[in-house]
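Structure request: N-methyl-D-aspartate receptor NMDAR2C subunit, Roseateles paludis.
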Amino acid sequence: MGGNAFDFQSAWSHAWQALGASVPAGLMEQLLARYAEPHRRYHSQQHLHECLAHLAPALHLAEHPGEVEIALWFHDAIYELKAQDNEAQSAQWAARSLAAAGLAPDVCERVVALVMATRHAALPPSGDAQLLVDVDLAILGAAPERFAEYERQIREEYAWVPGWIFRRKRRAVLRQFLARDPIYGTAHFRERLETAARRNLAQAVR
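Returned structure:
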């Protein structure tokens, strides 16, 4: 599922309007260029588009809607396959951009925390982080065909990893998500995706 320029432009403008700031010139194009990098198969404009589509009907749940929206745009802004600090680099880019647009330090700090929550190293502590992480993990509850495509895309991103190593590490990652009870932190996503996510993950782990 691709996203055309109008889809992205509308969502981008909405985020900055919610933040109460002017839209920075050229920043959206820089971000979209990152999401279009050739080494990305899953963490691409398709993923960003799907995330924005999942967030829109749940945005009313956010305490700081604009911050969740802008954090979503930045959450995979930097994605280097062999790097360990992609989220940290993405978060710092977000912080610099928000500060340059005149946003207050507390806003920048919250957005940094939101982006860092998408490392999935721990269960999110706050409502906004839960919402953002649920959006990022919505793919786990996708229709079987899309979930299968997602698994293929992840494998293509890590094509340089030997098959047996990839399968072992991938299975461990999927088991971690399956062990979460629940997988989704918000009732909105639990009601819509929890059952499908558990089915997809169990089948993938098998």
